[in-house]
Amino acid sequence: MTRTRQQILDDVLELLRSVARDWEFDGTLTSDTRLFGDLAFESLDLVVLGATVQEHFGQKFPFPEFFAEIGQRDVRDITVGEWVDFIHRHLQDPLPAPHGGAIVPGSA
Fold first, then answer.
1. Res. 89 pLDDT band, cuts 50 70 90
2. What number of H helices and E strands is found in the chain?
3. Which long-range contacts (CB under 8 A, 24 or more apart) does 92-99 make?
């Protein structure tokens, strides 16, 4: 089943609420909410969220690549919307198969 960006956003917002019950954030979670700046995430929180997202969607995501891109920016924060866009992009275009997409002899 293909999920829309809105469905993914709804899922991610629900996951955020479930993994971070001890926040001191009293605002409304939206696409513009910043994980570090608004929610006071620490790197471990991001790892927990990543694992939760992978479990929820039943798929591995290339988070190290995503984090490396974020690390190259002047502002090293991630909005919920950026997180959702990343997930949406990779749900539409999953990671290649472990064999690298090579043709298996006798399968052509």
1. very high
2. 4, 0
3. 92/2, 94/59, 95/59, 95/60, 95/61, 95/62
Question: Domain locations in the chain?
Answer: 5-92
Whole-prediction pTM value? 0.77
Paired with 34 in beta bridges are 79
**What is the spatial distance between Cα 81 and Cα 87, in angstroms, rounded to a whole number?**
10
Residues 28-59: tens digit of each pLDDT:
889 999 999 988 888 888 888 999 999 999 99
Beta-ladder partners of 17:
none
Element spanning 60, H or E: none
> How large is the C-alpha radius of gyration of the chain?
16
Our measurement of the distance from residue 16's CA atom to the centroid of its chain's CA atoms, rounded to an integer in Å, reads 11
Q: What does CATH list as the number for 5-92?
A: 1.10.1200.10
Q: Rounded to the nearest 10 degrees, what angle do helices 5-19 and 80-92 cross at?
A: 120
